[in-house]
Amino acid sequence: MTNLPLIALVGNPNAGKSALFNALTGARQKLGNYPGVTVERKAGRFSLSDGRPIELVDLPGTYSLNPTSPDEQVTRDVILGRQAGERLPDALVVVVDASNLDNHLRFALELIALGLPTIVALNMVDLATRDGLELDAHILSRELGVPVISTVAVRKRGLDHLRGELESMLDGSAGKVRASAEQRDFEGLRREARRIARAAIVRETPSRRLTAAVDRVALHPVAGLILLLALLFIMFQAVYAWSAAPIAMIEGFVASASDAVTAALPDGLLRSFLVDGVLNGVGSVIVFLPQILILFFFILMLEATGYMVRAAFLMDGLMAKVGLSGRAFIPLLSSFACAVPGIMATRTIADPKDRLTTILIAPLMTCSARLPVYAVIIGAFIPARTVALGIGLQGLVLFCLYISGIVGAMLAALVLRRTVTKGASGGFLMEMPKYQWPRPQDILLGLWQRAVIFLKRAGTIIFTSTVILWVLLSFPKAPEDSGISQVNYSVAGRVANGLNLVLAPIGFNRDISLALIPAMAAREVAVSALATVYSLDADEDEAKLERSLGDRLKDNWPLPTALAFLAWFVFAPQCISTIAVTRRETNGWKWPLFMIGYLFILAYVAAGLTYWTATALGLG
Amino acid sequence: MRLTDLPLRQPAYVDLIDWNALSASDGQRLREFGLCEGASVEALHHGGLLGRGPIACKVGRMTIAMRRNHAAAITVRTGPSDSDL
């Protein structure tokens, strides 16, 4: 715990708080959690003009000090000095959207009344001007009784001014929270906010609004849906089309590292460990970093531009039909990147049954950890040819896998809402922010944070699982001339041969059974595990060693097996982090165990149906 | 007229909100969005292919989305505003 002065950024959702946070702290950010709750604590540091360091914490956006969800509760508790693991802020920066003064000033008044040193950042003044609104910050400051600074966080305008104000404020008296009892009633605050907003608005001319124009298309029942599907389709095509060159680079690097180790070390256990275990195993997963970043790029863009809420609006009809809140669409869409933040994002859903259903189906959204698995199988078994109009067959198959996950999730929600999570139907009440072009630095920062998380996973969970698997595959050593392959003789091979009794009916072979066990830790491990298995097997045959994992899979698997393997991963709940976060969010083991059970059954049935159908069609 | 029946892009004012038809938290959220008797409101988009989807409307300077059951609890009238709330 540091003793730096703490400043809290607080304000309504969509006031541009995070952009201001990024603009002030740059890359010096630290993501963590508040103890006891899973609400993310986002903190960073910056320096005042005299070099004094300041800690800045970005609190979850909320509309009032009257919380309706767990993350809004954190905001209130931090500001009132009641949050465990957080000291009372020395000052507040209240972020207010300049074009939505009436509304945001009401919350600002509520915050100012608390008595902490407060500065109001009148943010996004450029967008307000675009909408024909001219404001006087001096009048606003006089009426509110606190300094008001015009900022455009995305263009870094007004930041020096803000830092200067904070400096003189921190030199003043220390803050203390007044009793919240003396707060005015809601209606009184609203009237006061409206009066001040009226006073501060110098000129208000109706102007053509960009947002309204775009929304005519984006929210149109037919055109909007076509646009949404087109965006998703482009996203999945790009995952393949843009990643070829960087992937080749990483592959080249791993290959030359393997060659270097092979040349430098004598044949033996250490060389096998480094080449088969570390480089082939972990390398086969790191290769997917470009594709994962492309996927995250699209998701970050959809969020930052304001399109995500529009997508939720379009999908609300469907969500209502399966008994979910339209709001559930946003956690579900972020689950395409990773189910863990997706499940954490369900905290914005007020109804408990609604929220539980969303948590239970979130793992069905195709997360980026499945991408390595899908990519390696598609790359090996689906020919890279164009179907029509520049649409690649590989991208099309990937798109279908994503759709299968979505359809599966919707059907699961339909059944769950009629059985285990029966209750009142969820609602949909959301603010639709204005469209805006995100700052490239914010997107890059988001991608950088994702890349670090992915590489950390590769270095820890994936590395450890791969190494353990290598050990279990390498011992005991098969006797020379016994005719038994090393894999079959090893501990892991024997376990896999046992598991394969259950999995053989759905077309899985021993190697798949072997890969599925360590893949419980994380789905990508399936790929590194297969790479290790075939790498060890290939040691016996020098000619095979030169071949890529895809080629080796193609040699060993019939097509129906590969398709069944894909179908399995659409459903299988193979991720320790997801199970852990579900346990934390549902306060017990009941729901995570239920989730594991129903998803494994679905995975088994889906893989089986795929295998039997493909075999019957003669694809084998 | 209910907000569900208000033609698109016709400026109107909130006449009455049946708070009892809304859950406590939904009611609070609507208040926080600036919905109150006298607020200016304009329906912008109806979602859903069969007209059963949510409604996007402008309340003051803010655009919000709500389901039809919420909109049905809001009575609106067209014409000039009679008070300066």
UniProtKB/TrEMBL annotation, chain A:
Highest taxon of the lineage: Bacteria
Keywords: Membrane, Transmembrane, Transmembrane helix
Pfam family, one: FeoB_C
Transmembrane segment boundaries: 217-240, 277-302, 356-382, 388-416, 454-473, 562-581, 593-614
Classification via Gene3D superfamilies: P-loop containing nucleotide triphosphate hydrolases
PANTHER family: FE(2+) TRANSPORTER FEOB, FERROUS IRON TRANSPORT PROTEIN B
Protein name according to UniProt: Ferrous iron transport protein B
Automatic annotation (TrEMBL), chain B:
UniProt KW keywords: Iron
Ranges where the Ferrous iron transporter FeoA-like domain occurs: 1-78
Keyword Iron on entry: yes
UniProt keyword Aminoacyl-tRNA synthetase, yes or no: no
Gene Ontology MF terms: transition metal ion binding
Protein name as annotated: FeoA protein
